[in-house]
């Protein structure tokens, strides 16, 4: 039998998340996390997903990404799932920014590595960490296909009218300034699973996907292809997020420089790490914000109202872009778990065919499900995202084709 296991790696600046999946069986074999890399309090958490498997945790300094991936390899080996297994078909890597060059999953070679490195200026927080994980994995299994799956690739189908900013074309092209979008693996997976939930082919369905976590983005998906998305050159644009501002008048930046005396780095930190919900009310956990609202906290309520106002604007805008909407799908941590957010986001949009059923919306957990009333013109759904499975499926499909 051909090898059917795929290891999925998501390498961040100070963490490595991983999952091992058996694609023929359609199941996970193990999952884990190495975080706080480089600190004395590094944490290694590993969960074998076989029946009876128990999570193992240990702390102690993990010096760098090389040590982190070796720790991961050791944990997998302890469960008989080592990286030297002949059943391992490939390693799939999440890469945040692929620019316009990478429109689909790609087997990694020196040319691909160079292009990912060339894109560092437009993804300075993400691509360097992704590269580190790739290079380390290549030293552990140099004989194995390594595949890059790009957050941006699903959004490369956007028409130029949606992807272009209205600035001087020569300047934009010289500096690769355009709207790329992110969370692409999630939007691809959820839009496809929403079509499945409706019992229809993805090519027949128009979906607005709302990926709401600490980072948040919306997409308009027509017949399985993205035609617009809320994030832009970077993940800063769009919805109100946990710590990011989302859409804002660009002149605010000039004002803060000229009047506030702030540097570019200070403004970068403000907009990416000290804005959004945390900037508005001091909390970026939606559960805590809702608790404060229930206790009468006006600042928390204002933050929630601003969050919902922006979300509702994007639903309306993407309804107009698509012309016909078959479903609105909520996903990710907030989208899947915060019933008040889902209810508020569609409140008042009954004229567009959008509504939620109170009892269905209150149900927690479970798989993909409809929360709209029977007979609703537009389905409203909760569809848990599975970015690791999407990366594994794309990786396995590519390796299978190449073999």
From TrEMBL:
Cofactor binding note from Swiss-Prot or TrEMBL: Mg(2+). Can also accept Mn(2+).
SUPFAM superfamilies: Actin-like ATPase domain
Residues involved in Mg(2+) binding: 10, 387
InterPro entries reported for this sequence: Ac/propionate_kinase, Aliphatic_acid_kin_short-chain, Aliphatic_acid_kinase_CS, ATPase_NBD
Gene3D superfamilies, sorted: 3.30.420.40
Enzyme nomenclature, EC number: 2.7.2.1
Primary role: Catalyzes the formation of acetyl phosphate from acetate and ATP. Can also catalyze the reverse reaction.
The protein's name in its UniProt record: Acetate kinase
Gene transcribed to yield this protein: ackA
